[in-house]
Write a structure and sequence with these properties.
With 206 residues, this protein is of the alpha+beta class. The protein has four helices and nine strands. The protein has one domain (2-204). The chain has helices at residues 11-23, 96-102, 114-129, 150-153, and strands at 2-7, 28-34, 37-47, 65-75, 78-85, 173-177, 184-188, 191-195, 203-204. The strands form two sheets. It has a five-stranded antiparallel sheet. Strands 6-7-8-9 form a four-stranded antiparallel sheet, with helices on one face. Strand 2 (28-34) and strand 3 form a beta hairpin. Helix 1 runs parallel beside helix 3. It starts with a strand and ends with a strand.
Length: 206
């Protein structure tokens, strides 16, 4: 999982970026509240980059389509974005632990929590009016997973390291899931938690 952050000029601009993230492509998109702030979740398919044989320099067979997930949180004037690409052959349901794990993140308190629901409703209406926007410069296709990526090497886990300097520092987070997505483990500097029901609920680790 890749985690990035964007500092915007205002919280309104960060919220507008949520709409842009939702409009980047199709798939299943929903605006939700995460740790008190408006956020967007998108589950979709993406084509892996086509690779070449290192010896012959010939292109290998066409790269497959794989499941992917994007979650973005507009935390005040900062957009924090999580992106994950799954192994070939995994089902759309396999993205559920990723969404569940990101929903457990902690972030600075929202000084105006009652405004979050209103913001989410506005974003939903805006998405209905303009479902997708063609990007001016289409992003490069994602690189094929590397051998050292735990998701590829073992086929049993997805890991992410999360850290931001916006507001009070977040605790560094490590996330891992089982191959079927049923078991999710989240560890941080302040403790850990686990789920055995696909991320529907979490218990503190002993």
């Amino acid at each position: 999982m890749k985690v990035t952050s964007e500092k915007r000029r205002s919280k309104e601009e960060a919220q507008q970026r949520l709409l842009e993230v939702a409009q980047e492509a199709g798939g299943k998109r929903s605006f939700v509240e995460i740790c008190g702030w408006p956020a967007v979740e998108r589950q979709y398919q993406v084509k892996l980059a086509q690779t070449m044989d290192e010896k012959t320099k010939e292109k290998l067979p066409e790269a497959p389509m794989v499941q992917a997930a994007t979650i973005a949180i507009a935390e005040s004037d900062t957009l924090v974005r999580f992106e994950a690409t799954l192994q070939p052959g995994m089902t759309p349901e396999s993205t559920a632990p990723i969404f569940a794990a990101v929903r457990t993140v902690t972030c600075p308190a929202n000084p105006n929590p009652e405004g979050t629901k209103a913001t989410i409703e506005k974003l939903k209406q805006a998405l209905q009016l303009s479902p997708t926007v063609k990007p001016r410069n289409p992003p490069n296709p994602p690189a094929p997973p590397q051998a050292m990526d735990p998701l590829v090497e073992s086929g049993r886990s997805v890991q992410a390291s999360v850290q931001t300097s916006a507001g009070p520092p977040w605790s560094e987070i490590q996330i891992a899931t089982s191959a079927d997505g049923k078991t999710v483990v989240v560890g941080s500097n302040s403790g850990g938690s686990f789920s055995t029901n696909y991320g529907d609920s979490f218990s503190a680790s002993v």
